[in-house]
Amino acid sequence: MQASAEEAVVSTLMKKKNRAKRRGLSIRATNVLLGAILPLTLLLVWEVAGARGLLNPILLPAPSEIWEELVGLTASGELAQHLGISVWRALLGFVIGGGLGLAAGIWVGFSYKTERLLDPSLQMLRMLPHLAIAPLFILWFGFGETSKLLLIAKGAFFPLYVNTFLGIRSVDGKLFDVGRVLQFSKWQLVTKLIVPASLPNIFLGIRLSVGVAWLGLVVAEMMGSSSGVGYLINDARSFSLTTVVFVGIIVFAVVGKLSDSLVKLLEARLLRWQDSYKGDGIS
Amino acid sequence: MATEMLTIDNLNKTFAVPSGDVVALHNIGLKVKKGEFITIIGPSGCGKSTLLKIVAGLDTGYSGTVLLNGKEIEGPSIEKGFIFQEPRLFPWMTVEGNIAANLSLKNPEVRKKVDELIELVRLKGFEKSYPRELSGGMAQRVSIARALLRNPDVLLLDEPFGALDAFTRSHLQEVLLDIWQTNKTTMLFVTHDLDEAVFLGERVVIMNPRPGHIRNILPIDLPFPRKRTGSAFQELRRLVLNEFEKVEEPLFEIGAGI
Prior knowledge:
The complex is a heterodimer. Chain A is mainly alpha-helical.
């Protein structure tokens, strides 16, 4: 009797959720509109100011001119070619650096001994800025792909390393007792408890690493390269082709955001079970 | 005495603290028959949870004898199902996933037993729900099903309903009795609730602190289902309470149960 009352409450809650799902579509549309207000207003003001001749076209070309440049670069296939190279570099650098970061984070997370052995040195390396280490990489490996990939990988390594480590160390000790009582094997302990429990942190690490990989890419391509979006920007700057610089920046922003959204989508799927504060005003 | 499933004899446990040693359990002796329902009641600090954790194999470093089916306890194992005060479910697994935990639901035998247990703990329709979608009482029922799936020789319950509201608690007590009568699982149930101890137990073990020891073991000779309002029930409840009143200090503290 009490059980059915209890279950009734839960099932009404579920019904409410379903109704909310139906409403979800219009909510999403509203969210998109809400997010677009600020940039659209800015664009409008910018365009009007440009058309009235209030802006120096060398320093700040109007949005319509940038758009034309974007269309032109896309039509000629130049943009796609540079972008393809950049994406490939960022991806490869991220996979190498992020993969190593994940592995190191798991290893150090599991063993206090390894932590004492490795962590101090890794934390020291983490503090080295890209620009300080780039000359060394160029000296050692030349201007080729190796130094670029290493620079990107170096950046992508640390966010994943730090967050994976943190995730493993913050697994609820009470759940370990459950694992002991249920006689989990070592392997089950890892796959059924530790990895899922640290997944939120690992995903945070992935998102930060992807971001850092893009940042490292720009540094790598600007310090000496003959291809890639970073080169496109640098080259255009020396010829004062400001519209091309803007196109490059926009492409970085859009592709960066897209890669982040991709990870977020994956995160939402894999972390469905999470019960955490999602911010005020979500309904 | 072949029917004895659990034998505890001259069990002593001391905790080392900076100011010296604290005796947590002193000369504990208890024999539990197969299929028996034992409730252990006592104020906080009487060592009842420690006793349960020793039987579970979660707590080591004691002296004396603890035998389950004639064998020394060697660490935690699925023969000793343990229900914690909180449900302790894996938030990333569904209800059925939590019950199966490290066993595969693709195994038809496991699948069948999980379905039966979901029926037994009255959670039909919630198989695919995640723990965040469950109420406290439902979550605790999942953890009971999780322990039962492993066919434990004895189910150890550490104040499992302590954090629930009175309605849910009395409902879950009935569910537990139902399970006990269906499965004949031996139960060792720790509580600090007088009514709960008398309502569930065939025998009530009364423990007192400083040092933690068994003061008395009272048989509750009432047929199931028991009526809390009956005069016999009230009389037995008073008897158990009397065991505590012989001690001068106030014993029942709010938030008991560590």
